Amino acid sequence: MKPTVLIVDDEKHTRDGLRAALEDKYETFVAKDAAEAARLMQDVPPDAVLTDLRMAGEDGMAVIDRALKLSPQPVCLMMTAYGDVETAVQAMSRGAYWFMQKPVDLRQVELLLERGLKARATEKEVAVLKTRLDRKFSWARWWAPPPPCSMPSSRCAPWRPRTRPCSCSGRRAPARNSSPR
What we know:
Layout: E1 4-8, H1 12-22, E2 27-31, H2 34-43, E3 48-52, H3 60-67, E4 75-80, H4 85-94, E5 98-101, H5 106-136, H6 139-142, E6 162-165, E7 172-174
Parallel strand pairs: 1-2, 1-3, 3-4, 4-5
Antiparallel strand pairs: 6-7
């Protein structure tokens, strides 16, 4: 199954060009504004979102904020013709994977999508493996009390002083370095 990419841009030729370039490797959806993008994200949660910064109505930052509330979170790429360092830092701090200047290099877009999707897949795999390890090697499993002993209490060395609980009778067990009296 192909990963899904949502392309959000108010310029029709940019949307169509990106869609044509990406549709061989990805299932692509296009939206002309943030409202249409929100509807598409609810219908088909995307694996990646490629959005313009400046659009009519809500801007690309709102698209990123909405996309990152989805579970699982998509890879978000921001593109703009009016970018500066401050805007790039703001987009990245909100959760964008990358920030690009228009006109975008299609090879760069494909590479960033590939790397971003691979990074998200690796994050998911690490989370699954961590959960498995936590279950397998949990402290509760290692520090659980021993099962009750089936040995008769008469064989539990009654002549030794009891200094710790014995698992077979509940009485105090002999200290390790004690000698018989």
